[in-house]
Amino acid sequence: MNWNQLKTATIEEVVAWAETQPWRDAMAACAQDAQWHSEGDVWTHTKLVLRQLPELDEWPTLSPQERTVLIFTALFHDIAKPLTTEVDSITGRIRSPKHAVKGEHVARAILRDLGCDLMTREEIARMVRNHGRPAFLLEREDPTHEVVRLSWLVNNRLLYLFALADTRGRATDSMTRPEENLHYWKLLAEEANCYRQPYPFATDHARFAFFHQEEPNLHYVPHEDFRCTVTLMCGLPGSGKDTWLSQQRSNLPIVSLDDIRGELDVDPTDNQGEVAQFARERCRELLRAKTSFAFNATNTMRQTRGRWLDLFADYGAQLEVIYLEPPFPEILRQNKERAGRVPEGVIRKLADRCEPPTWLECHRLEMNDAVS
């Protein structure tokens, strides 16, 4: 089945399809700690969660898109447990550290291969990464900040509804995380006006400041006096970044890592320290001159991208991030037509590790899955 078929399938049809997939076999073979999951293995729990979804009081009020997001969040929320599960050698307890973080990448890869559209895929992937957070809200230093931050990554209403199904989809009588904790998530999000939509910051800069302050203040509205605007391009090789810039930002000077590698005669497989240092100095020259420009590189990893964005923000720049991801076969085709073609194996590895940008990182974000 492809994505167009799966997104309109019933829950039982999705389960039947999943049972033909190799990752389902790994889930069925993965044991869980009896204190949390006396129902048994990961796949057994997953099916119970899926079948809890239509039992939710709110299910009839959800749109087809919202139901799709919940179904595939349930399907994939523990998909990385077989990759992360370990048994304590002393206590014999089973744990799966960071399975949600790894699960985000696994879910993204499966959905990409199925042909899922970019926006739906990222909504599901972020739900998988954050699916356990409502249960631990009371342990957060500032619970209000938690629901506000998450509202710009996922829909808090859908996250709450999934958490209910996840809690009910297990056969453990002695749950130490009662549903009341989940209801607190809903109540707090409603009070903060971010249950059904992202928290309404006064300005884009107020949002950006909140996510980058050491001591975030929801009500702080910083003065806007940007020295310039930096457009950071983000996408796999062959995704069309050069074409987009030529069509949409042709007036801007461009700092391109590919161009700098050519100037310095550095191969992409060589040490990139000199290239990065040269690029930083070129960016600083433009920033000091208060000149808007575009920074063009793959920038597909959050940490790498963040170092550049921090540099630009330190100089008072307004940050615009443009992420391009046409269908994967189109990326491979376009890469083959490039003068500096990247080996397909390298692109596939980059895709597996890719972390598309979010609204937490910049003032303006554009996610584009159109063919250039």
From TrEMBL:
The keyword Signal is annotated on this UniProt entry: no
Keyword Cell division assigned: no
Domain HD residues, every copy: 43-147
Example of a GO MF term: nucleotide binding
Key words, A-Z: Hydrolase, Nucleotide-binding
Listed name of the protein: Phosphohydrolase
Organism: Blastopirellula marina
